[in-house]
């Protein structure tokens, strides 16, 4: 095995573009980070061909791990999990399980990647379900971590508490924030005070020892009122996609207005440096790489449509999580919370065992 | 009573700014629409003083309807409903109930306005709960009607169907679209297929005779994939506020980037006409005025922070709904749906009677 200190398993076959994106992204990433070994997982011959095409076949930056199958973007979860036991996703997750890699990354089918990593790696003790977390840029120049983004449609208060824990551990270890603030996504006090689950979750959060800020509303995400925003997966997914839709519309309107006629095109030329800076600040490729938290291993999901630049950010996120000890940090958070609830004489909302094995394959 | 054909009751005391906004907005609105009479509801002396200050005391454009109490922005719903029976909100709603006005508008406390109008006016036959609908500008240059935006936290499939009906009736009568398309807000198929309520609602929608497009995702709001997007009030509220937060952040970043230094400020000067057009397209004041649908009367809610320009749009929305027969249109839709379900031999998801009287005051 290579002596490089960080090893990342990359599903080279996943995503809308597969090898043509993942391999060059991995190569560039490895150049930037000589301490990191890339395990290129997928069809060996196809990976070799791509490496040759990139002129990247030499060097000690990679190892190829053959996988005979590929999960397609539209494969049902059942097919991915039960019929494709030698998929590049499965083998990448297995590499983490077997401690051949510290983290795994895929741009493939989200549902399949979640199911496979959960099946192979299982959840951490105390955590019922994994959650998807991502960073959304905020007005303060930082980013707000939001979870869950679609792993769990129906959540209990206990699940929301566990998401708060996972998000706090992520921001604490990866962003180095001492006591990340947590907000519970809710609707305007002036209308109604939220549903039962949210109210119960607020009570648990108050007893948890986490740095609970209280309820927040949708606009607090971009305001950056808190470090971590917690919600169920249905709400999180819809919110994220709505915001993506709006961001795309704004970009389109900017283009339309600046290309309307000769005059506006001149204005665009003059304003170009400003507009470029603006689009850099908004470039969501820099925020690519959602974390699947709560598993016994570091798992990153890249956007399916990521280009090599964006996929590189997902790889960096994986490396950063390994380097900063995300797993150890999360385990410490779980222990800390158990103690808080014991001291407060409250029944712990953390599950007593891992239950990632409820799925069978 | 005045011979003007349209009469709108305006809660002059509501909103963050009260009389100083509502009275000048009403005056300008009445000038633009000589067929419309404004019933100015609130403290008579204070309204007269404001009219004098505006030099608007003469003319047949208004009548004052005295109300001795005002619902404050932070009054609990119970206080507004049970303790302030002579509030300007209550009297404005009562004017619609008594057929002194065709519609009522308030910029006050949303929860109170909902509770009061529901108590005074009751829901339409077939409708269990009123819903809040608004228009969000979309990429196609039109607007997408989204509901519910916070009136109902926990919804059944039947409620979602009723929202689809109310939204369709709104778009049909007010925007003049023949068979508005309806989308059910859901999360990416690739992750999970939504919760039970959403699945059941989809079945009801397919049997309804409404123009059901199918599931849509968050980004379809700005894409303009459908005319009407239906969701529960928790999701709708969070989505709307998240998008508002993002829009504000974009505006702030634009300002920041263009005022960074002398060079960028020159660029801003050159680009000013373009940026102005852009900010016009984004000016959410033009979309002010959410409709409370499903009641036996036309009820509009303005943003609490609306200025006179924005409040004028809320008044126009009320007038337009009256002029286009929103109530009659909605009743026809309800009848049409009852027939569809009867023909399909499906138990009607429309309630058999109005139940707006479950609240007591």
TrEMBL record, chains A, B:
- Predominantly, its location class is cytoplasm
Supply one GO CC term from the record: cytoplasm
- Write out the entry's keywords from A to Z: Acyltransferase, Cytoplasm, Lipid biosynthesis, Lipid metabolism, Phospholipid biosynthesis, Phospholipid metabolism, Transferase
* One BP annotation, GO: fatty acid biosynthetic process
Query: In Gene Ontology terms, what is one molecular function of this protein?
Result: phosphate:acyl-[acyl carrier protein] acyltransferase activity
- SUPFAM superfamilies hit by this protein: Isocitrate/Isopropylmalate dehydrogenase-like (SSF53659)
Q: Where in the cell is it found?
A: Cytoplasm
The cross-references to InterPro entries, in alphabetical order and at most eight, read: FA_synthesis, Phospholipid_synth_PlsX-like
Q: What is its EC number?
A: 2.3.1.274
Q: Which Pfam families match?
A: FA_synthesis (PF02504)
UniProt superkingdom: Bacteria
- Name the catalysed reactions: a fatty acyl-[ACP] + phosphate = an acyl phosphate + holo-[ACP]
| Subunit relationships | Homodimer. Probably interacts with PlsY.
Question: PANTHER family annotated for this entry?
Answer: FATTY ACID/PHOSPHOLIPID SYNTHESIS PROTEIN PLSX (PTHR30100), PHOSPHATE ACYLTRANSFERASE (PTHR30100:SF1)
HAMAP family named among the record's database cross-references: PlsX (MF_00019)
**What does the protein in this record do?**
Catalyzes the reversible formation of acyl-phosphate (acyl-PO(4)) from acyl-[acyl-carrier-protein] (acyl-ACP). This enzyme utilizes acyl-ACP as fatty acyl donor, but not acyl-CoA.
What protein family is recorded? Belongs to the PlsX family.
Q: What is this protein called?
A: Phosphate acyltransferase
Record lineage = Bacteria, Pseudomonadati, Pseudomonadota, Betaproteobacteria, Burkholderiales
